[in-house]
Design a protein that fits this description.
alpha/beta; eight-stranded mixed β-sheet; 16 strands; FAD-binding oxidoreductase; FAD/NAD-bd_sf; FAD-dep_OxRdtase; oxidoreductase; oxidoreductase activity
């Protein structure tokens, strides 16, 4: 029987095409180290790799298997800058700080591609991203955005597309304009997970799967992380569980909310398909964003149905097909070979959450759908912090991230109501 993630619904196309997926042992016995990491997704594995390469004694524990959560199951799009548009960051923080945040994210993009190349990780990188407007009134914003990032943020790779060009590049007339970004692209996330774990292990990191954390205590200059069969004692701890933290640590839980996002993969569309002839990935202007792309072998990977809270849908294929047909009516009978989901962590302002949540314990997450490149880079920034340079991580730590309203009891229903209102607004 194929392996099924116990924390994420469906079996993904990524799992079936990633090649060998090594298994790592469970922790059995106590360990002492410099840094203990909780969570085996992009953030944790990247931190483990960079720390171990620097000679740090690091132990990483993962409750299930590496990549079982969002890191191994996401849309694979890198994007550009932060999740918030550069001009919106400028309005909130001023140009200097907004540019520093934009440049940090651009370094994250370059780092991911360079890390994969340097470590011979084939991540199926494909260039290009289209960002498109699903309502006519948004088109002017996209046109202005292209000008702003070029003139004020020194990023010349985004060009405006009118409705005609948008239809040609999409193979669909469902959108009214947008931008084309030639300075970014999309990847196979599970291959990146597997490769990053390999790099970390080869550098000397001690990696354990099937090892949940049952508690974290920081006292007397030490951090103790308990597990079912042993305790890890360290100088420092990184919590990198993002949407899958549950009640492990209350500050992170108050600021990061899980959202279920679901993807379907079709059979290869064929060389004569008019869908995305340039091979770009796509995201649209909906609050409940639709995101899609073609794989290296020509399949349409389409994501778009978000669920707020943690109840899985009964049939992913039905909902994904409905959204595909809205954009591509000719695909109404296309075979969908895979349907899967995972939970991404969002924050109230859709900006990442990084905080020292107790002495010597830093938590990172809340990437809000922009985590493929940011999470990997935050692992590197955490390693820099351990080495004594916290300046760049501090740029993210200082972002204003309020907790979700309503406390633990009411925040999920309140968010459900609010975000369903936004979903309704998308359709009006």
């Amino acid at each position: 029987m194929p392996y099924q993630s116990p924390i994420s619904p469906g079996r993904s196309w990524y799992e079936d095409t990633a090649g060998p997926r090594p298994e790592y042992p469970a922790l059995d016995g106590d360990r002492n180290c410099d840094v203990v990491i909780i969570g085996g997704g992009f953030t944790g594995l990247s931190a483990a790799a960079h720390l171990a390469k620097a000679g740090t004694n690091v132990v990483l524990i993962e409750a299930y298997r590496f990549g079982d959560g969002a890191s191994g199951r996401n849309g694979g799009q890198l994007g550009t800058g932060q999740r918030a548009w550069a001009e919106d960051l400028e309005a909130e923080y001023g140009l200097s700080r907004a540019k520093a945040l934009f440049d940090l994210a651009e370094e994250a993009k370059a780092h991911l591609i360079e890390f994969a190349a340097a470590n011979q990780i084939d991540i199926d990188y494909m260039p290009g991203q289209l960002s498109v407007a699903h309502k006519p009134r948004y088109v002017d914003d996209y046109k202005a955005h292209a000008d702003i990032v070029a003139s004020r943020f020194s990023y010349p790779h985004i060009a405006f597309m009118d409705a005609k060009e948008t239809a040609e590049r999409l193979g669909s007339t469902a959108y009214f304009g947008g931008t084309r970004d030639t300075g970014t692209g999309h990847v196979h996330p599970m291959k990146l997970v597997i490769g990053t774990a390999r790099v970390a292990a080869q550098a000397g990191a001690q990696l354990f799967e099937g090892t949940p954390s049952t508690g974290i205590v920081s006292a007397g200059g030490k951090v103790r992380v308990s597990t079912p069969k042993g305790t890890v004692t360290a100088q420092k701890c990184l919590i990198a569980v993002n949407a899958y933290g549950g009640t492990l640590e209350p500050v992170s839980a108050a600021h990061i909310m899980p959202i279920g996002s679901f993807i379907g993969a079709t059979v290869p569309l064929g060389a004569d398909s008019k869908v995305l002839p340039g091979g770009e990935s796509v995201d649209d202007s909906r609050f409940v964003v639709r995101y899609f792309r073609k794989s290296r072998d020509g399949r349409l990977l389409f994501g778009g149905r978000e669920v707020y809270g943690v109840n899985d849908p009964k049939d992913i294929h039905i909902h994904i097909r409905r959204q595909i047909v809205e954009l591509y009516p000719a695909l109404k009978d296309i075979e969908i070979t895979h349907g899967w989901g995972g939970y991404v962590g969002i924050t109230v302002p859709r900006k990442p959450f990084v905080r020292e949540v107790m002495p010597n314990v830093i938590s990172a997450g809340g990437y809000s759908g922009h985590g493929v490149m940011l999470s990997n880079f935050f692992g590197k920034l955490y390693a820099e912090t351990v080495a004594g340079n916290r300046d760049r991580l501090k740029l993210i730590e200082d972002l204003k991230i309020p907790p979700f309203p309503g406390g633990r009891r009411f925040r999920t229903p309140l968010l459900f109501l609010a975000l369903n209102w936004f979903a309704l607004r998308d359709r009006i």
